Amino acid sequence: MFSTAQSIYPVRAIREIEDQLIPSAKPSLMERAGRAAAEDAVRLILDRPAAILIACGPGNNGGDGFVMARQLAQAGREVVVAFAAAPERLPAEAAKAHADYLAAGGTIVSDLPAAPANGWALVVDALFGIGLARPVEGRYAGWINALNAQPAPRMALDVPSGLDADTGQPLGTTFRATHTTTFIALKPGLLTNDGPDYCGEISVQRLDIEAPAWVPVRGQAIRPALFRAHLRPRPRNTHKGIHGDAGILGGNTGMVGAALLAGRAALWLGTGRVYVGLLDEYGPSVDCSQPELMLRRAHALPERLSALAVGPGLGTQPAAEGLLAAALGRPVPLVLDADALNLIGTDSALQSALAAREAPSVLTPHPAEAARMLGCDTACVQADRLHAALEIARRHRALVVLKGCGSIVATPDERWFINGTGHPGMATAGMGDVLTGLVVGLLAQSWPAESALLAAVHLHGAAADRLAREGIGPVGLTASETIDAARGVFNGWLIEAQRDPRITPPQRPIR
Ligand SMILES: NC(=O)C1=CN([C@@H]2O[C@H](COP(=O)(O)OP(=O)(O)OC[C@H]3O[C@@H](n4cnc5c(N)ncnc54)[C@H](O)[C@@H]3O)[C@@H](O)[C@H]2O)[C@@H](O)CC1
Ligand SMILES: [K+]
């Protein structure tokens, strides 16, 4: 479970690595890539003896396809290679791979053939990789549509053709892979936006390259390894005062539930005391199904809090704005969500107060809230989610999670993380409030802000994944249920961390 973290590199950085390595690499990177892809393919279709179709494009991605074809043919598999470009215009390495394939007895067809009677064992997309420069149209779009229609496993080399490897945006017709073998390192576009829908299962083939030794890492996939140091057992001699006082500010008329959900999430994640300040003047004074929560009027939250979340059901009326301004002045870790973000997006005084804070600030926008903060529309945020998250983090000197498929965590010093847990069943009312509660709960328990955010984001999705495995969701999953599951997953992590000798505290000898 605590496997090491995995680096993510944008295309520019992958190119930098390649440029440094290509001149001296032996065997060549293309040879390594094609061989690794062939090995993945063999594993994938052990039980499918039919022929393999490999569609090769006009660049080095096509070169990977030729190497793969040669390797598979040499391993005794029947291979059909489709290649429509002019061989003399291939880049040098791909031209060599093409020649080597032909020299080994391989043959090439210039149009995509019809499937044999027993179907293909596997179809392979080696059309375009990180060199995709424009939307896929015309002949290649036709090929991709035909490949997508095959009732066989579909494997993409490096990146599904048509998918922007940096943003996860499909550019024109896009290959829909069931498996993607990607080279050197993960790319952000495989993990966020539409990327996961087009990549299927991802296999990273590092090609014996230690990428961080060549280009510093700025992006990482979120894994428990990143926050394992804080998964510590509680001392037996403890009391609730040690585990923090969290405040939730929100719950305006008609939206009391949002604040209660956040409060419950903080409570169920182990916060010592949770206070919920409601703006609804007719709001309840007790949550009968969760009487442990201490409900207050919004202005009456305690002065001494370990961490505060502002936003769930807050509304945007002047009263909410005044409370937010006061909260920004509190010297405690702050989580800002929902209407707190909408208010900040349009009010320069609030923006200044946020940027001036010394205690950590965590912002949790979904794409529409991020768009309001950036003064653009949702499509522009989704067109480059990584850039949007980094820009909000930079402007507001805050940690940011841009929610959605492949949530992105960005730091003010330009590092970033992409989360892989969770599923579409989480696109439902109240889920964001639960995340806010998980973050503020860990902050209240003295977790450092970056670790708290990474852990909460990963936990939120992992809880929903656990429920889906039990048949609770994806359809019909409710936010309340994820709170219960998050507690279970988190305690599982704690148990696992104690088993792991690297972070178990030394045992006292028994005398
Ligand atoms: N450079 C290297 O030595 C290595 C490259 N590798 C592979 O090479 C890929 C990158 O190679 P390239 O930079 O040659 O790029 P690609 O092979 O991804 O594509 C570039 C080619 O496609 C054309 N093209 C781009 N978009 C198009 C579109 N929409 N419609 C029609 N034609 C389009 C370009 O004009 C160019 O000919 C990686 O993704 C990876 O698969 C790996 O073999 C590792 C080593
Ligand atoms: K490809």
From TrEMBL:
SUPFAM superfamilies: Ribokinase-like (SSF53613), YjeF N-terminal domain-like (SSF64153)
Single annotated GO MF: NAD(P)HX epimerase activity
Residues annotated to bind (6S)-NADPHX: 60-64, 129-135, 140, 158, 258, 313, 366, 433
Provenance organism: Thauera chlorobenzoica
EC number of the protein: 4.2.1.136, 5.1.99.6
Family the UniProt entry places it in: Belongs to the NnrD/CARKD family.
Cofactor: Mg(2+); K(+)
Gene3D superfamilies assigned: 3.40.1190.20, YjeF N-terminal domain
Protein function: Bifunctional enzyme that catalyzes the epimerization of the S- and R-forms of NAD(P)HX and the dehydration of the S-form of NAD(P)HX at the expense of ADP, which is converted to AMP. This allows the repair of both epimers of NAD(P)HX, a damaged form of NAD(P)H that is a result of enzymatic or heat-dependent hydration.
Binding annotation for K(+): 61, 125, 161
PANTHER family from the UniProt entry: ATP-DEPENDENT (S)-NAD(P)H-HYDRATE DEHYDRATASE, ATP-DEPENDENT (S)-NAD(P)H-HYDRATE DEHYDRATASE FAMILY MEMBER
Subunit structure: Homotetramer.
GO biological process, one term: nicotinamide nucleotide metabolic process
Substrates-to-products reaction catalysed: (6S)-NADHX + ADP = AMP + phosphate + NADH + H(+); (6R)-NADHX = (6S)-NADHX; (6R)-NADPHX = (6S)-NADPHX; (6S)-NADPHX + ADP = AMP + phosphate + NADPH + H(+)
Protein name: Bifunctional NAD(P)H-hydrate repair enzyme
Cofactor: how and how many bound: Binds 1 potassium ion per subunit.
Keyword Lipid metabolism attributed: no
Keywords attached to this entry: ATP-binding, Isomerase, Lyase, Metal-binding, Multifunctional enzyme, NAD, NADP, Nucleotide-binding, Potassium
Pfam families (UniProt xref): Carb_kinase, YjeF_N
InterPro entries: Carbohydrate_kinase_pred_CS, CARKD, Nnr, Ribokinase-like, YjeF_N_dom, YjeF_N_dom_sf
Organism classification: Bacteria, Pseudomonadati, Pseudomonadota, Betaproteobacteria, Rhodocyclales
Binding site for AMP: 403-407, 432
